[in-house]
Known about the structure:
CATH topology of the largest domain: Aspartate Aminotransferase, domain 2
Radius of gyration: 21 Å
Number of helices: 12
Strand order of the largest sheet: 1-9-8-5-4-2-3
Shape: globular
Number of domains: 2
CATH class of the largest domain: Alpha Beta
Order of helices and strands: HHEHEHEHEHEEEEEHHHEEHHEH
Distance between the termini: 32 Å
Helix content: 40-55%
Bound molecules: pyridoxal-5'-phosphate
Amino acid sequence: MTASATPRPIPFFDMQAQQAPIRAELDRRIAAVLGSGRFVLGPEVTELEAKLAEYAGAAHAVGVSSGTDALQIAMMAEGIGRGDAVFLPAFTYTATAEVPLVLGATPVFVDVDPRTYNIDLADLRRRIDAIRAEGKLRPRAVVGVDLFGLPADWPALQEICAAEKMFALDDAAQAFGGSLHGKRLGAWAHATALSFYPTKTLGAYGDGGALLCDDADRAELFRSLRSHGEGKTRYEVLRTGMNGRLDTIQAAVLLCKLPLMEPELEARTRVAGWYAERLGNRVQVPAEIPGAVSAHGYYSILLPDAASRPRVLDACKARNVPTAIYYPMPLHQQPAYQAHHQGYAPLPVSEDVSTRILSLPIHAYLDEEQVGRVCEAVLADL
Ligand SMILES: *Cc1c(COP(=O)(O)O)cnc(C)c1O
């Protein structure tokens, strides 16, 4: 190779590189499903549920059709609906806010912490008080999101939910593998929702998700709700449910990938370290919280001002360095949700962060040279 050889491309996600070491196992397990013909909730789903529960340290795992459906089933099991206020961060993926609305409940947007981008506890307390004082809605649930893979402050959120008699739901769609005080995400809230969308830390080759919990009755309810509210037999309908089932081929894929979780988490942590070393004195890098291990689902930096983002985006583009913006607009400003924020206190941190945030490639198959090139591009015109 000459010095002028085209440098290796830097994929934003790399699902292909991950496939190579498990390809034979994938072929074997998928062929087994094809042979069995049990395509929905087959034995691989049961096997996966046991392994997920064990990995996460939760008593129960229930495989479902997506992360969004996991959130919905968890809220349905709790009977959340009309008249209920569901508190959630304004700076998150749309699914977190969409679900309460689909169920007739009302999302109440809470600001985020400027260092962790997770729900701001003081603001949460203020908004719960405001909703109680207003007297129109019943404070019912908090959805804590572990944004970009960093666990939210679950001990504090649990305390608030216990004091207010509210349901604590962990949207861990970006954070599976992360942990707090030596205990993995999965049993920190009343229920934990996972997404197996292909780009998540544990990704299928299609849609999938799971619910984790410690309570046997709750798990039973999740199983019923994912299958149209079925009872002991398939044609006994006990409650209004939905089609939220996990299909067997996705479970087979996830069983092949589960053993990669730890080595990949280690590799992403190494990548995060390289980024922090090279960028930490110029931009805000992801927060290190004592006791918290981030799953590093995304690597998001906060640029010094909004004006620098278009320049950095151009510099990256010119150097074939892929980037993404999670998220360019906080949810309370989205056309679909604006009306639900009318009359409530502003969300200045969410608004500011959305103008300055920038996500860089992070996955287990990046090496230090590639990370070096990403950093050069980011710093070129900062
Ligand atoms: C991906 C994601 C979801 C939704 O998961 P799907 O499997 O795509 O339905 C929900 N919340 C957050 C924070 C996510 O990142």
